[in-house]
Amino acid sequence: MPKASEIKKHAAIEYNGRVMIVRDIERSVPQGRAGGSLYRMRMYDVVNGGKVDETFKAEEMLKLADLTRRPAMFSYVDGEEYVFMDEEDYTPYHLNKEAISEQVLFINEDTKGLLVVVVEGTPVSIDLPSSVELVIEETAPSIKGASASARTKPATLTTGLIVQVPEHISTGDKIKINTAEVKFMSRADS
């Protein structure tokens, strides 16, 4: 059983007899408390989607929920749901757009390395690969000779995600994005 300080975003934990997915974690250190970090976690019930905000002490023990991660690929959008297909047994996983709104910005039909998080038979979240390749839909014109400069400009990708890119990158370029830091890594190998 991990301590509250060891829990990461998108982890599934058992809390009050329910399975919760941790969506956000804020660490705070109240003044006057010797070594007493607090972890405020925003969690969502995997069954009914209910939101719970709870604060845990760093040393508090939490129980990880029984979950599996299945390799999957994005298939199509059906109204408010994104449908992913299991790469091994072709099971379709339906996920509400709101539940995966952050991850959707990194996903298109070509995205490889996606994992659907399944808790007690219910798909609840998507684990992204460490990097994805996406195409720039719109950015300011590239500046000749700017490759050596460290200046950046905003670029809107085909998924709607906006990242800062070097000035020599142009519209239509395929780039590699770090999904954890939401940062430009390099041009993608075409």
Automatic annotation (TrEMBL):
It comes from Pseudoalteromonas luteoviolacea S4060-1. SMART domains: EFP, Elong-fact-P_C. Belongs to the elongation factor P family. InterPro entries: Elong-fact-P_C (IPR015365), NA-bd_OB-fold (IPR012340), Rib_uL2_dom2 (IPR014722), Transl_elong_fac_P/YeiP (IPR020599), Transl_elong_KOW-like (IPR013185), Transl_elong_p-like_YeiP (IPR011897), Transl_elong_P/YeiP_cen (IPR001059), Transl_elong_P/YeiP_CS (IPR013852). Transmembrane segments: none annotated. PANTHER family: ELONGATION FACTOR P (PTHR30053), TRANSLATION ELONGATION FACTOR KOW-LIKE DOMAIN-CONTAINING PROTEIN (PTHR30053:SF14). One of its GO terms (biological process) is peptide biosynthetic process. This is Elongation factor P-like protein. Residues 132-187 form the Elongation factor P C-terminal domain. Residues 69-124 form the Translation elongation factor P/YeiP central domain. The lineage of its organism: Bacteria, Pseudomonadati, Pseudomonadota, Gammaproteobacteria, Alteromonadales. Keywords: Elongation factor, Protein biosynthesis. SUPFAM superfamilies: Nucleic acid-binding proteins, Translation proteins SH3-like domain. One of its GO terms (molecular function) is translation elongation factor activity. PROSITE patterns: EFP. It comes from the Bacteria. One of its GO terms (cellular component) is cytosol.
